[in-house]
Amino acid sequence: MERDIYFDPTGIKDDAKQSSLNDIYSGIERLLTSDEEDFSMQYEISDISLDDIDDYLNFLIDNQSIDIKLGRLTPVVINNEDLFYLLCDRLSIGGESPHLLKIYFLEYSDGMLTIIPILTEDGNITVRIEDSKNSPKEIRRIWEDVSSKPSLDKMIDGVTLRRGW
């Protein structure tokens, strides 16, 4: 995480950052508890970076900070200009020139959420949180590719590991 190079005795910067992170938290929580089929949340946030969002989402999972039991967070880095512009159109934003995207798939007991943060032209970040069933087919295809690859968990399932020889 980025270190501040100055001391802010007022705490205003930290309060603004926490407010943006609270928006993400409340969006996830509202989607996890919503019964609506096509419900999604979209926030325009400032005062935080894409790295801050990454750290925060990992914190939420590591500490099980949301009331509903979560399974796992799978971040996927994408370097695809066409997909970048498709997402900017879907989110109705002007994305800052194509950059690497990190899309998060948040699996939980009853389904999965997709979290898409994109840096906008004005330096803010638009975060879209939606049920993965409502994500564009290109995003669903990415999840299918990622989830079909063997993970270490799948490879060692049922195998007894021993130390030494």
Characterise this structure.
- This protein is of the alpha+beta class.
- The chain has one domain.
- Helices cover 38% and strands 24% of the residues.
- It contains five helices and five strands.
- A five-stranded antiparallel sheet has the order 1-5-4-3-2, with helices on both faces.
- The longest helix has 22 residues, at 12-33.
- The termini are far apart.
Specify the structural class: alpha+beta
Biggest sheet: strand arrangement = 1-5-4-3-2
Count of β-strands: 5
- What's the N-to-C terminus distance? 41 Å
Helix content: 25-40%
Summarize the structure.
The protein is α+β, with helices and mostly antiparallel strands and 165 residues long. The protein is 38% helix and 24% strand.
Topology:
Blueprint: H1 12-33, E1 40-45, H2 50-62, E2 70-78, H3 81-91, E3 101-108, E4 111-119, E5 125-131, H4 137-148, H5 152-156
Antiparallel strand pairs: 1-5, 2-3, 3-4, 4-5
